[in-house]
Write a structure and sequence with these properties.
This protein has 182 residues and is α+β, with helices and mostly antiparallel strands. The chain contains six helices and eight strands; from the N terminus they run βαββαβαβββααβα. The strands form two sheets. It has a four-stranded antiparallel β-sheet, with helices on both faces. It has a four-stranded antiparallel β-sheet with strand order 6-7-5-8. Helix 3 packs across helix 6. It is globular.
Length: 182
C-alpha cells in the first residue's frame, strides 16, 4: 500500500543558514526511493509517496541523508495525509474567520502531555492563546507570529526538551493537506 507523506524540515533556508535548494531536496528524496516528490515553498516542506516505512523511519532516513549530503543536521517531522487532515479538521480556533498569519500549528515529533505546560500562565499572554492537539500545538496570535510574546515562550528549550518541534502558518497547514491528498 502506498501512503502520501509530508516531510517538514526545521530551520532550513532561514537567514542564510542551512541552505538546502528544493530541487536538491527533491533529488535526495527520489534517491531514497520515494515517488511523486514535490516541494512547497523554500522553507522546508516536501511531499512524497512511499510503499514502505512509517513516519518515524522516514524522518530519520531523510535527516540522515541530508546530514550526509549537505553536512549539517536538520530536524525532520514526517506526517501522513490522514494526520495532516485531522490536524486541520480539529483546529480549536475559528480558522475560517482568521487570517493565516494569526493561526499556526507546531508539529511535534511525539505526543506532548499537557503537564509539560502546567506552570505556564496562558492568561498572561491574552489575547494570544494555544491549545494542544495530538502531536500538535495550535497557536492563535492576533498580531502575527513575529510580534508574539507567547510564541517566544513556547519555543523555549525547557518546554520542547526531547522533542522536535516545527511550526507552520495556517496557509501551509491547509496546503499540505491538499498536496498530500492529491
Amino acid at each position: 500500500m502506498t501512503t502520501t507523506y509530508a516531510a517538514l524540515l526545521r530551520g532550513i533556508n532561514v537567514g542564510g543558514n542551512k541552505k538546502l535548494p528544493m530541487a536538491e531536496l527533491r533529488t535526495l528524496l527520489e534517491g531514497l526511493g520515494h515517488d511523486d516528490v514535490r516541494t512547497y515553498l523554500q522553507s522546508g516542506q516536501a511531499v512524497f509517496t512511499s510503499g514502505h516505512g512509517d513516519e518515524e523511519s522516514h524522518a530519520a532516513e531523510i535527516a540522515g541523508a541530508i546530514g550526509k549530503r549537505f553536512g549539517f543536521t536538520v530536524d525532520v517531522v514526517v506526517r501522513d495525509h490522514a494526520y495532516l487532515k485531522a490536524v486541520a479538521d480539529n483546529c480549536p480556533f475559528p480558522a475560517a474567520e482568521l487570517e493565516a498569519k494569526q493561526l499556526h500549528v507546531t508539529y511535534y515529533s511525539q505526543p506532548v502531555a499537557e503537564d509539560r505546560f502546567a506552570e505556564f500562565d496562558q492568561a498572561a499572554y491574552l489575547p494570544e492563546e494555544f491549545r494542544l492537539g495530538d502531536r500538535a500545538l495550535y497557536l492563535y496570535v492576533p498580531d502575527g507570529l513575529g510580534r508574539s510574546r507567547l510564541a517566544v515562550e513556547l519555543a523555549r528549550p525547557r518546554l520542547n526538551k526531547g522533542l522536535i518541534a516545527t511550526t507552520r502558518n495556517w496557509n501551509t497547514v491547509l496546503k499540505l493537506v491538499e498536496l498530500t491528498g492529491s
